[in-house]
Amino acid sequence: MQTMVHMTQQHYRELVDLYSRPGEIRISGFDTSNYSTFSDSTLATVLTLFDNEVSFSTSLKQDAEEFSTLTGAHCTENLDAEFVVVKAGELTEKIFHEAAVGTLGSPEQSTTLIIEVPSIGEGQKYALRGPGIKDINTLEMTIDAGWMALRSEKCLEFPLGIDLIIADQDNQLCVIPRTTKVEVK
Amino acid sequence: MDKKRWTSLFIRYGRNEASHFYNTYKDSADFDIVSAPTEGLTMIKVREHAESSLFYIGEMLVTETKIRQGQTVGMGVVKGSNENLSMAMSFIDLCFNLGILQDELQDILKGLEMAEQHYVKKKTDEILKTKVDFDMMTE
Amino acid sequence: MGYVAVKGGTKAISASVEMYKNKNRVEALEMEISQIKAGMAQMINQIMSEASLYDRDLAALAVKQSEGNMEEAVFLLRAHRSTLPRLYYSTVTNTREMFVERRVSASFKDIPGGQILGASPDFTHRLLDDTMTYSEASFEMTDADSYGYSLSRLPKVIDYLASEGLLNKVPEDNETPDDITKQTIEFPSSRSERLQSLTRGQTGAVTSLGYAEIRGYGYSSHPNIGEVRVGQQPVHIDPFGDGEGYFIGDVELTEVDAFMPADGDAAEQSKEMEFKIGCGLVFGQNETKAIAMSVLDYSLSHPVPGVATGDDEFVLLHVDSVESTGFISHLKLPHYVTFQSVLDRIRKTKGGTES
Predict the structure, then answer these.
(1) 3-state SS string over B31-46?
(2) Which residue of A has its CA nearest to C242?
(3) Which stretches within chain C are classed as H helix?
(4) What is the Cα–Cα distance from B118 to B56, expressed in whole angstroms?
(5) Is B66 in Cβ contact with A69 (below 8 Å)?
(6) Does residue A114 contact residue A165 with C-beta atoms inside 8 Å?
(7) N or C: which end of chain B has fewer CB within 10 A?
(8) CA-to-CA distance for A156 and A164, rounded, in angstroms?
(9) Nearest CA to CA, how far is C251 from chain A (Å)?
(10) Any bridge partners for residue C280, and if so which?
């Protein structure tokens, strides 16, 4: 039987793999009823990473209530929350400016952006370099290069920075951690 | 009757009634189980009265169940390890939130209010027998 | 010098575990959890309080598994709690809503609501009773007396003092408390850290240090117990933050408000007030521990320089059952290499430079 625990454990494993292999793409096999406006893979990520100690921010009240109900996490208006869940079309400069990058003593106290894009595998081509990538990884996704430039600015002073989890509407997932150098190809 | 009130009536005086209600009516409402009864903890936050500040006194074991019909969610959180009661309470919560089976629930709750009155009276009488009457000393 | 790993003893260890599990067990005498719950309620109170986990069934199981060894039972429960997710934080639990089953004041004879003795061994002769048996309590309901009397709304003795103008009413401080289960205490400690450590302290350790504090190593004066109350405390959660709380159950609590008349040095520092209050609040009926906790709450909040019981690091780091018993008992585990190096050094100094 596939319980919620099994599914989140499996999804967590996928995320750990993706964090260590930036730009690789996995398909989420998560199967649960979805009453949010996000895709299943985004919801799966939320269910896996959130619990009642977590704070998050998202724009729609309906989604916020759904995430809180399912995980017990606390919704906040502040964009320096531990997680910001957002659709690529609704990204703002404010989100990047206010995201927490952590402190030198505690770089983990930073914001993770969970961004849902229309599609991974088509759109803008990016070249990824850095730890976990042998030479170069090419990633295509429908997200504006301007946003990725803002992201790179936030990650200039390692170990400070933000991590991105990208999900699309076909349940594909990839991760761009703060260690990865992203260039438009 | 607010949520605090009816949850306390069922948990304190109506465990059997809650299970019986669930078993009788569970098929009359379609619902999905969001999370089946699982054990977890609730940290208890208390107010101390020396400086009126707060501290954590410790955790209690609870069993939690979440079910839903569409957007409406029912939650059952009860003290201790008790899957049946937790499940039944989540179903009753869902019924309240959906506004269904209200007459049946009100009937049960009326009975539980009686049970509560009886219990509290009995317990109070018993405890007050140990209340010191200092006037006795001057007689 | 690094550690040297040694192998061996696997078979002996398995055999030891087997022997421990089976020793002196007569199947016909196996205790049921329900029997332990019914017959050892006070032991369970102590264990739940020290483990900082309220569940009578789990505590009874821990008693059974540990053969009644308190430190082991507390250890088992602490270990178990670490395997469970913390799903909720309760809303603010206020003992003003407690259904009081016992409440006495040592400071005032006539307290509003009266002195209610409840069930207590305080008034027994402490003679072993070889005729003792369990019997079903029978109780007749009466019509009179309790009419209109609510044990869940008993006024507190400190309210009476405040209404007389003898005690300054302090405004509510709603700052989120620190949590020592998530963040290790740093010194100087906060009040919420102190109270959380004391409430889960080992009963004997808290009592001993509280005794030392008032016997002559600190405050050295006689605290007055304003009120001891024991009863059933309702606990609520408000998962959606909309004020529509759920009741989840009652827990038994003991609360002590101790009046500490300002004395000696402390008096000079606190001219503005006649006395301070020490707070004791613990799981279960643990009256001695709660009183000692109230004394230590005071001594740590108003430390006298140079006194151990006013030193938060000394008190808080040593009252925890799992930490103290864990460290003491680890001494019996193999320290072959460290001890060899000590011996080497002694041999070297004794034998001069040639060895």
Answers:
(1) CEEEEEEEEEEEEEEE
(2) A65
(3) 10-22, 33-39, 41-51, 56-65, 70-81, 157-163, 191-199, 203-212, 264-269, 287-301, 312-318, 321-330, 336-350
(4) 34
(5) yes
(6) yes
(7) C
(8) 15
(9) 23
(10) C256
Q: Is B4 on the interface with C (CB under 8 A)?
A: yes
pLDDT on residue C59: 97
Q: Is residue C272 predicted with pLDDT exceeding 60?
A: no
Phi-psi region at C244: left, alpha or beta (left = phi > 0; alpha = psi -120 to 50): beta
**H or E stretch covering A85:** strand A83-87
Summarize pLDDT for C19-49 with one digit per residue, the tens: 988 876 788 888 899 999 999 999 999 999 9
Which amino acid does the sequence have at C185? I
Asked whether C147 and B124 are in contact (CB, 8 A), the reply is: no
Check: CB of residue A21 under 8 Å from CB of residue A42: no
Q: What's the CATH fold of domain A4-184?
A: Rossmann fold (3.40.50)
Shortest Cα distance from C87 to chain A (angstroms)? 6
Quote the ipTM score.
Answer: 0.94
Interchain CB contact of A52 with B (< 8 Å)? no
Of B72-81, C160-169, C304-313, the least confident: C160-169
Q: Which residues contact A56 (CB under 8 A, 6 or more apart)?
A: A46, A50, A64, A67, A73, A74, A75, A76, A81, A82, A83, A84, A85
Residues pairing with B32 in the sheet: B68
**Residues 6+ positions from A110 with CB-CB distance below 8 Å:** A99, A100, A101, A102, A160, A161, A162, A163, A178
CA C255 to mean position of chain CA atoms: 11
Strand partners, C235: C249
Q: Which residues pair with B74 in a beta bridge?
A: B67
B83: CB partners within 8 A, 6+ apart: B37, B63, B65
Residue B41, min C-alpha distance to chain C (Å): 5
Domain residue spans of chain A: 4-184
pLDDT 10s digits, C155-203: 899 888 888 877 878 899 999 999 999 999 989 999 999 999 999 999 9
Low-confidence ranges of chain A (pLDDT < 70): 1
DSSP 8-state assignment for residue C217: I
Q: Sign of the CA dihedral C282, C286, C289, C294?
A: positive
Considering only CB atoms, which chain A residues are within 8 Å of B68?
Answer: 33
Contacts 24+ apart (CB under 8 A), A37-42: A37/A62, A37/A63, A38/A63, A38/A85, A38/A87, A38/A116, A38/A167, A39/A116, A39/A167, A39/A168, A39/A169, A39/A170, A39/A171, A40/A171, A41/A167, A41/A168, A41/A171, A41/A172, A41/A173, A42/A85, A42/A114, A42/A116, A42/A167
Cβ–Cβ under 8 Å, residues B60 and C53: yes
- List the beta bridge partners of residue C116: B131, C103
Q: If residue A128 lies in a helix (H) or strand (E), which one and from where to where?
A: strand A120-129
What is the SS3 assignment for C350?
helix
Two structure tokens written together for C88: 């909720």
State the pLDDT at residue C355. 44
**Closest residue, chain A, to B32 (C-alpha):** A33
For residues C284 and B75, what is the distance between their CA atoms, to the nearest angstrom? 28
Contact between C249 and B78 under an 8 Å Cβ cutoff? The reply is yes
Q: List pLDDT tens digits, range B31-46.
A: 999 889 999 999 999 9
